[in-house]
Amino acid sequence: MSADREKNFISAVVYVHNNEKEIEYFLKYLNKTLMSTFENYEIICVDDESKDDSVKIIKNTAKEFENTTVNIIQMSYEQGLEKSMLAGVDFAIGDFVYEFDSCIIDYELSLIIDIYNKSIQGYDIVAASPEKNNNILSSFFYYVLNKFGKGNNKLKSERFRILSRRGINRIHQGTANIVYRKIVYYSCGLKHEHITYKPLIKTNINKNFLYNQNIAIDSIIAFTSIGYKISMAATLIMMCLMIITVIYSLFVKILQLDVSGGWMTLIWIISLSFFVLFGLASIIIRYLSMILRLLNNRNTYLYDSIDKINKN
């Protein structure tokens, strides 16, 4: 049986945060799926400071696995999905690395193997995406990123993905800190693909609205030009309003209409002030975007410990 299994070493990185209800089922079926296809693999659970019994359940479940090592990275404090997964991928040693952003399974387990088979056809990044994104805010977020981001991106909602070692090395060469991994993955120049599937159940994968909102805002500012374009559009509008106001004030003066004293001077000052204000805002936003991109090369993550569980 061993001779029939894939020889590539596989790492599976799993994000865990208060998942005591799902983690045992997920790990057992993930291990069963990987064991049936790969000769050598590891499972890395990144615990983002869970407050429940997630870690205890992981340790008890991992003791039942005979053919692999389960590693538990415990973050020093809650740092969110992006930094936690970056820690897990950095620790992974596989030729190919799975990223599971959630322990909730709404897909056929065979899909895990399908995206691997697609990857070995020459794709460095392959993701599993549901057919339809029912979250309106999420759909709008991806629309903005695809519309105003650099490159020909086709970002969409994803459940999990696989990265080749070449893809991981390329990403690490570009940045040490990632605001939003998917943008970096699909803008690194490597070949990528999506496999769509019909969800088996209706789930709420992204529960932390505030964290997702912050990630969305940071990503739009850092990776798109929409802020600069909005500011420039506002500047042009104010410039047009200023021109109209100046023409109107000249019209009033020529016809010597009865207006309050100082009105024309005040209008001139207000119009000019708004014009300068929006002009400066455009420049500031442009520079802030550049600074944010540079800051992506600084700071990473903090973890408290790494535990290895292996029955052997």
UniProtKB/TrEMBL annotation:
Gene3D superfamilies, per the entry: Spore Coat Polysaccharide Biosynthesis Protein SpsA, Chain A (3.90.550.10)
Domain Glycosyltransferase 2-like, chain residue ranges per copy: 11-102
Keywords assigned by UniProt, alphabetized: Glycosyltransferase, Membrane, Transferase, Transmembrane, Transmembrane helix
Pfam assignment, any one: Glycos_transf_2
GO CC annotations on file: plasma membrane
EC top class, as a word: transferase
Protein source organism: Candidatus Mucispirillum faecigallinarum
EC assignment: 2.4.-.-
GO MF entries: glycosyltransferase activity
Protein name from the UniProt record: Glycosyltransferase
Listed transmembrane segments: 230-251, 263-288
